Amino acid sequence: MSDKVDITLTINGRAHAIRVEPRKTLVDAIREDCGQTGTHIGCEHGVCGTCTIILDGEAIRACLMFAIQADGRQIRTVEGLADGETLSPLQQAFIDHHGLQCGFCTPGFLMLATNALEHNPNIGDDELLDVLSSNLCRCTGYQNIIKAVRAARDQMRGQAAR
Amino acid sequence: MTQGAATDDHYPSPPPSSARRVLGHAVTRIEDLPLVTGYGRYAGDINFAHQLHMRIVRSNKAHGKIISIDASAATKMPGVVAVWTNDDIADLSPIDFRADKNATGIREFRQPALANTYVRYIGDPVAAVFAEDPYVAEDAAEQVVLEIEELPVVVSASDPPGEFEPGRSSEAIVLHHSFGDIDAAFRNAHAVIELDLKTGRHSGVPLETRGAIGVYDAAKDLLELHGAAKIPHRNRETLCRMLNRGPSSLHVHESHVGGGFGIRGELYPEDLLVLVAAMRFKRPVKWIEDRHEHLMCANQGREQRHLARIAVDKDGRILGIEDEIFHDQGAYIRTHGVNVPNRTMCMMTGAYHVPAYWAKARVRLTNKTPAATYRAPGRYESTFVRSRLMDAVAAKLGLDPVEVRRRNLITADQLPYVIAFNEPGVEELEFDSGDYPALLEKALKAFRWDELQADMKHRRAAGELVGAGIAIFMEESGRGPSDNAKIKVDPDGAVELITGGASLGQGFETSMAQICAEALGVDYRRVRVIHGQTDLIDHGIGAHAARATVLTGGAVHVTATMVRAKAIEFAAELLQTPAAELDIVDGTVMRRGDEGGPSISLGDIAKRIAPGSKLLRGRDPQLAAHGWYNTDHTVFPYGVHLAVVRVDRETGKIAVERFMVAYDVGRAVNPLLIEGQLVGGCVQGLGGALSEEFVYDETGEPLSATLADYLMPTLHEVPDVEVLLTEDAPSPHHPLGLKGAGEGGINGAGGVIASAIDDALGMPGAITRLPVTPQRVRELLRKTAQQ
Fold first, then answer.
1. Quick check: pTM over 0.90?
2. How far, CA to CA in Å, does B160 sit from each of B107, B194, B312, B326, B365?
3. Which residues in chain A have their CB less than 8 angstroms from residue B708's CB?
4. In chain B, which residue's Cα lies nearest the Cα of A97?
5. Which residue of B207, B260, B290 is in closest CB contact with A137?
6. Test mutation, B28, B715, B722, B746, chain A, max A CBs within 10 A
7. Least CA distance to A145: which residue of chain B?
8. Where are the beta strands (DSSP E) in B602-695?
9. Where are the domain boundaries for CATH 1.10.150.120 in chain A?
10. Per residue in B428-464, pLDDT tens?
């Protein structure tokens, strides 16, 4: 196989110096080499969005990138959403509105929605629907996911207005 | 017992949730915190030091004879430990049936862990590669060269059967269900209607693919399977039988499970292979399925053709139903045996009074992925068929489709309603409680059915293709015989609840914690719920067929009631107060209604009755109990689905504008979770009704082997599902009145959508096949345009 390459993945502000084959996917490196297993793998062909992370401020699918392409860039995963014991409003809203069942797609949805709300705190319901329809969930029928994201948006907007 | 002891398995009506502290309340889940913070532990997250990785080499031919398997190049690759073919596991039993009693006549159709002489579907495991690294294992698998001599392929159960092996027909078995005088029913009929109907092949497709990790501890001669799901204890039994091991030497461990839906957690070839390999290599062996494999190898379901006939009198009352079913079993018969065609036949008559019934299911093997149970197995299919028949009766007699259903529903005064089949060994059904016509009227009212008709009339006049449909169904849940639970109160007041249940994400932990907390008088968040660990409790029924809440919930209730009695017994001595005056509130025993009075916490009682305590005076130490719940009964929830669809004339696309699930669960443990189950199930059902289909070409090549081809609903395709959850008919056979809720959202989804599309197109009987894809709708629209 091809030689391994030294790279640094910065995940939730913490640098992980790892050595990977150039063909190793980013999601595999995050999970296996950096031990951050909160990001899940659902399809490995970019359809389900389960592996969604935030890379340099954009929500991306970590199964469609090689780890070496993320060398030196800023990665955010579900493990970085809470501030210590305090959950982010979105995480709390998912609990309050029963926005998850098996929880496997949840980290992907949380990262997707976090990114959307950060880009546009006033994002409208229709646009939210467009954004969130890019990920798959098999348990909830989506109803409570959209409820949770809307509630988090409204709450965050309310806090910002104060 | 808190609600009066059961006599003859017949319980008084349980109190409503308003009279309960936590049972029946919509509390948030105790499962969620690790899952929203990234600390869940799914199969892929489980690793053992020094583990090997397995990769399966799969057949690329749908049917053929193996001429050779050349693994020489793969074996030489650095990091590869071994490549196995069937020769390496020649003594190993094929994947066995869970219930051996159902195996008569079908044992020959079981799947070997690795193909033996023949391959029978694309994806059939042929060889297993074991390597130090998963990437290396995958590289090596690609180097294994298969030479397969192709044989004739059967891709449809409606086609004439072929050969499973030389001299053995691919029609594995023909099953029968019947009651009443069917000849008389058809002889005396005012009208007879015949339909040719098909349900498409689709499946659960959980977001987490399958995974299995085998670990062997040579020091203890202990074999462990991690990544298990659904039915850990029953899988252990089957594995012990196949591997010839005693139950205490093989343990199955469930961690977080990324969705089950009936298909996950059954035993598959890979589960067996990691165990055998772990023993042979004396190293842990990990296997994680990729999505492509999942869509070709995990159980699929639903594919049936029905030649159904119904006989009615002049008022549209059913005299008899006949059905010949062609059940597409795929390449092998897996762990359930022939459960799905049997469930299809026994639930066919649904909530209707049908005097005579005759059904025959031809279970036929095809060269496609094996089929088995998917959420509401046999019920989704039979409700589709029954709904199509009822709509056809309405059309034929010029009656309103709702009215035809009203006339045929079993009425409350007919309950308990027993359906006994002629065939020996076929279990009778005893519908326990309910008022099916009342639920129908409630649902119609809540959906504003009459207003809707007027509104649709206007819209149709304006050129829109809009229509509404209805489906009514029975569910079954909580089949016995037994489950058990162990509860222990720690000295700090925390409660450990060990069950033999399983969690597939449905909220099992919270539901069980609520039942335990209600009986014991503690905060449900202080209950730690264990499930899926065969080393901690010897028996368990897992989570399948909507059984968990009913059966395991029953066991938790019984056990928590025992612990409560023990706590009160000792508290009465310690507080010098008659037991009858004591209550447990928030984990503290006190005199009922005397908040400031003398009290003692459960934790303190646990401390005071530790082993050696003088208080015991011959009684067992620990604030703990192990209890059983036994029942001979199945409980029957029931539901109504209503839907409104709009058809796009140009594209054939169907928009589901509204959907209502009306469902009676007897008593709800947690309405929030039940609604989640019903809505989630409904959306899965919409997938199977409108877009999801495993398509195969005429050579048996699977054409839906990526998520870009197998189309599951996204947020864009789903309506806001309206849920009407009722608790009108608690089961008299359950101490808490519970009935299962896992399958009520999906059961009628195919039937109701077909009914609504017919109505929208103004073409009664147009929909004969699921899924109703835009292509199929366009074909129908073209036909009407030509007329």
1. yes
2. 22, 22, 32, 11, 11
3. 45, 47
4. B28
5. B207
6. B715
7. B715
8. 624-630, 638-647, 654-664
9. 89-161
10. 999 999 999 999 999 999 999 999 999 999 999 999 9
| Residue-by-residue DSSP string for B560-606 | HHHHHHHHHHHHHHHHT--GGGEEEETTEEEETT-TTS-EEEHHHHH
Taking an 8 Å cut-off on Cβ atoms, the answer to whether B715 and A145 are in contact is yes
Burial of B579 by CB count in 10 Å (0-12 exposed, 13-18 middle, 19+ buried)?
Answer: middle
Per residue in B410-423, pLDDT (tens digit) is 999 999 999 999 99
From the list A81, A96, A130, which residue is nearest B28 (CB)?
A: A96
Given pLDDT bands bounded at 50, 70 and 90, which one contains residue B545? low
CA–CA dist B124, B368 (Å, integer):
9
Using CA coordinates, name the residue in chain B closest to A94: B36
Rounded (10°) angle between helices B436-446 and B449-461? 50
- What's the CA gap between B631 and A150, in Å, rounded? 45
Q: Are strands B417-419 and B599-601 parallel, antiparallel or unpaired?
A: unpaired
The pLDDT score that the predictor gives to residue B654 is 98
| pLDDT tens digits for range B311-351 | 999 999 999 999 999 999 999 999 999 999 999 999 999 99
* Distance between start and end Cα atoms, chain A: 57
Interface residue of A104, A128, A135 to substitute, partner B, most B CBs within 10 Å: A104
Question: Using a CB-CB distance cutoff of 8 angstroms, which residues of chain B are in contact with residue A39?
Answer: 38
b (16+ CB within 10 A) / e for B22-60: bbbbebbbbbbeebbbbebebbbbbebeebbbbbbbbbe
DSSP B410: P
Give the CATH class of A5-80: alpha beta
Residue of B nearest to A127 (CA): B716
Residue pLDDT, tens place only, B192-204: 999 999 999 999 9
Q: Are A77 and A62 in contact (CB under 8 A)?
A: no
Q: Compare CB distances from A45 to B29, B41, B706 and report the shortest one's residue.
A: B706
Cα-atom radius of gyration of chain B, to the nearest Å? 27
Among A81, A86, A78, CA closest to A38: A78
Smallest CA–CA distance from A134 into chain B, residue: B714
CA distance A26 to chain B (A): 14
Yes or no, beta carbons of A42 and B208 under 8 Å apart = yes
Residues of B in contact with A106 (CB under 8 A): 35-36
- From the CA of B290, how many Å to the nearest CA of chain A? 7
Q: Can you name the CATH fold of A89-161?
A: DNA polymerase; domain 1 (1.10.150)
What pLDDT, on a 0 to 100 scale, did the predictor assign at position B7?
42
Phi and psi at residue B150, to the nearest 5°: -70, 145
- Quick one: closest CA in B to A86, which residue? B37
Domains of chain B with bracketed CATH: 17-40+479-630 (3.30.365.10), 43-151+209-257+264-288 (3.90.1170.50), 304-477+634-786 (3.30.365.10)
Amino acid identity, position B469: G
Judge: A37–B672 Cβ closer than 8 Å, yes or no: no
Residue reference for tokens 């060994």? B425
Q: Which residues of A touch B672 (CB under 8 A)?
A: 98
Mutate to test the interface with A, among B29, B33, B36, B230 (most CBs of A within 10 A): B36
CA distances from B655 to B334, B339, B466, B691, B776 (A): 36, 34, 9, 12, 15
Distance from the Cα of B244 to chain A's closest Cα (Å) equals 34
pLDDT digits (tens, 9 = 90+) for B568-596: 999 999 999 999 999 999 999 999 988 88
Question: What pLDDT digit, counting tens, does each position of B212-226 carry?
Answer: 999 999 999 999 999
Quote the strand ranges of B633-776, DSSP E: 638-647, 654-664, 721-726
The residue among B502, B40, B538 whose CA lies nearest residue B229 is B502
